[in-house]
Amino acid sequence: MKLIETIMLRSTKEIPGTLIKDLIRNLHLEGKADYPLEVKIYRNFPLKMDLNIQLLWESDVEPAGESSLGRRIHHIIKDYGLVCHSVWIEEVFDLEYGKIN
């Protein structure tokens, strides 16, 4: 199953542009966390103070909660403002048969 871990930050101050990219790169190189299939970082337009980080994972079992990488990112950015951290499981709706796979 595919999972998306979302870490959203609402800040009252500007966030350094390389903060998250450097954090993820350093954590991966240190080998301290599993690395997701994909990492996407979005900034709210035109507000440069809102940030949305998405970690795409693939797993055979339902997650027990946030990943260690996600928790570390949350810990680093919490000083910049309000953080909402959640994990979403992909559900695919089959239009022909009307059920979720």
Please give a quick description of this structure.
The protein is of the alpha+beta class and about 100 residues long.
Structure description:
The chain has 101 residues and is α+β, with helices and mostly antiparallel strands. The chain contains two helices and six strands, in the order E-H-E-E-H-E-E-E. A hairpin with a 6-residue loop joins strand 2 and strand 3. The protein is globular.
Helical coverage, percent range:
10-25%
Kindly report the CATH topology: Alpha-Beta Plaits
The secondary-structure class comes to alpha+beta
Uncertain runs? none
Strand tally is 6
Distance between the termini: 10 Å
Average pLDDT, to the nearest integer? Answer: 83
Strands in their spatial order, largest beta sheet: 2-3-1-4
Q: Enumerate how many helices there are, as a single number.
A: 2
- Do you know the CATH architecture? 2-Layer Sandwich
Query: How many structural units, i.e. domains?
Result: 1
What gross morphology would you assign?
Answer: globular
Order of helices and strands: EHEEHEEE
Task: Name its key features.
single chain; 101 residues; alpha+beta; Alpha-Beta Plaits; four-stranded antiparallel sheet; two-stranded antiparallel ribbon; 2 helices; 22% helix; globular
Topology:
Elements: E1 2-11, H1 19-30, E2 38-43, E3 50-58, H2 68-77, E4 81-89, E5 93-94, E6 99-100
Antiparallel strand pairs: 1-3, 1-4, 2-3, 5-6
